[in-house]
Design brief:
mainly alpha; two-stranded antiparallel sheet; elongated
Length: 233
């Protein structure tokens, strides 16, 4: 396993406060801070180089640099590592591997138990091969052909509306008004597409009759108002 993968899988390590204090009790605060920084770099990169020591310990007295560097041992690859820290890394790797193996075992066990329960629930007399149905269902094309086709709405012509006006007793002069009105609205009634223009024309007739009945009342009111104005003058 390369160091990059270790870093991604283990972004943190166990920090034992008592052990750390016991191992650094003779260090100054500056030496202890540099030591912690070097441990973090090792955990992140997998190891330390001479350049890492120079960057972290730059400006420290030579003996302080040696104290920090003595906490790390040089390995066969020429890099430095703290053995205790690498032991913690190995413990985390083993723990993650154990957790992964346990999860795989649980998954396999659950899958096996489910398959066993499913097989047990099947009827014992169920044949291995099902015989074809004596009355096979029609294919998709036949089913579609047998379904009734829904007619799409087609806007009427003025001539069609005029003919319908004659049938229901609506003045034919309303035919062009009806067509022009709904043509401008895209043949929409409320918020939906018109489904039957004949039904809409029947409603148009009802509103037309209501307007016609209201005209005499409005005319009488206008005459009374004109008379009141004349009397006042």
């Amino acid at each position: 396993m390369n160091e990059d993968k270790k870093t991604r899988k283990a972004p943190a390590f166990q920090f034992y406060a008592d052990d750390f204090l016991a191992g650094t009790i003779t260090m100054t605060n500056e030496e202890r801070g540099a030591y912690i920084a070097l441990l973090c770099i090792q955990w992140s990169k997998g190891s330390l180089t001479e350049n890492d020591f120079q960057r972290v310990c730059n400006g420290m007295p030579p003996h302080s640099q040696r104290i920090c560097q003595d906490k790390f041992q040089i390995d066969a690859d020429g890099n430095y590592r703290n053995k205790r820290l690498e032991a913690e890394r190995e413990k985390q790797d083993q723990y993650r591997k154990k957790q992964t193996d346990n999860a795989k075992k649980r998954w396999v066990g659950n899958a096996t138990a489910y398959a066993t329960a499913y097989a047990t629930a099947l009827p014992a007399h169920m044949p291995n091969v099902c015989s074809p149905s004596p009355s096979p269902s029609p294919n998709k094309e036949e089913s579609i052909a047998s379904e009734p086709q829904r007619s799409r709405f087609a806007p009427p012509t003025i001539k069609e509306v005029e003919d319908r006006c004659l049938e229901i007793g609506l003045p034919t002069s309303e035919a062009s008004k009806f067509v022009n009105y709904y043509e401008s609205k895209g043949w929409i009634v409320g918020r939906s597409k018109m489904k039957s223009w004949k039904a809409s024309l029947a409603g148009w007739k009802d509103r037309h009759n209501e307007r016609q009945q209201a005209l005499p009342i409005q005319s009488q009111s206008r005459q009374a108002l004109d008379q009141n104005i004349a009397n006042y003058l």
